[in-house]
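Same chain as my last thread, 350 residues:
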Amino acid sequence: MEWLYILMPIAGVKIFWPGLIILGVGVGIIGGFFGMGGAWMVTPGLNILGFPMAFAIGTDIAHMAGKSLISTMRHGKFGNVDYKLGMIMLVGTVVGFEVGAQMVMWLERVGNVEKVVRWIYIALLTLIAWMVFHDVAKRREKERQAAARGEKLEAGATGVEWHKALHKIKIPPMVHLHEAGIYCSAWLPIIVSFATGWLAGILGIGGGLIRMPALIYLIGCPTHVAVGTDLFEVMISGLYGAATYTYKGRTELVAAMIMLVGASVGAQVGAVATKYIKGYGIRIAFGLAVVGCAISILMKLVQPWLPQFRSALDTAATVLVLGLVSCMSLYIFIRMIQGVKMELARKKAA
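reply #2:
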């Protein structure tokens, strides 16, 4: 089965190339749908396929930048992008990203990058999964309380409302973000973007894994606007990140190009799907994907304590990541097709 493996000339490792295609197409769909570059799956996925962690980070950022550009253009046509908010957040993102990238280079020199990055991933994925499902549970509780009063909960109501407290902080300058429907201090998105940019630089992500929930829960964006605005931010930070990691010699361009071919198609599907699957449907699917990704990373982390199961755990982690990407992509694609059919049926009836 040697023909299924291709040598990566810069990283110096042989990689299962069908896995790169599956990651590219699947994460293109998922990233376009959730409003993220998909690096929260791709970086650990590349590491599981055989890339050293620093190369997995740099390669994924290069692939992500091109795919996010395609997704942003599609979301812009649907009015899902708040460009003013994206440009404000760009300030903190770039500074935070470079700080994080320098930390990765330091960790690589001291030989701790693999272990530290994986544990940060686990902590972050656990926090985000809890936040998403806590929000969903609170929303359902509000729906039950409204039903008991004989009322119906308004469509825009959320479970977690941390952004309302943050909007009370009136530190000048104040900005009005029209697409998001928000009036807040400009320092709120700047501080949030610095924190997400810093984590993005460490974890090798465009920041979407943490920025999309931050846009919803801390800044208060509607879900569909958070998706489109985050992709715009991922595109900008991804282009910068690709340049800085390539300069540091940690980008495998062959793998990035293989994934980008599939991702360019998948991103179109994911972006269109947000037209038919909105609000809490997106949040629940996102939470499930985060849980699956965390489990796959845990399988890699426990290997030093279970050496006799190393091969089995490696295989299981690879199957889980690729299977998760495939199943989530198929679900989004099917829901998109169903939405298109219903829309066509309504137009025909009218």
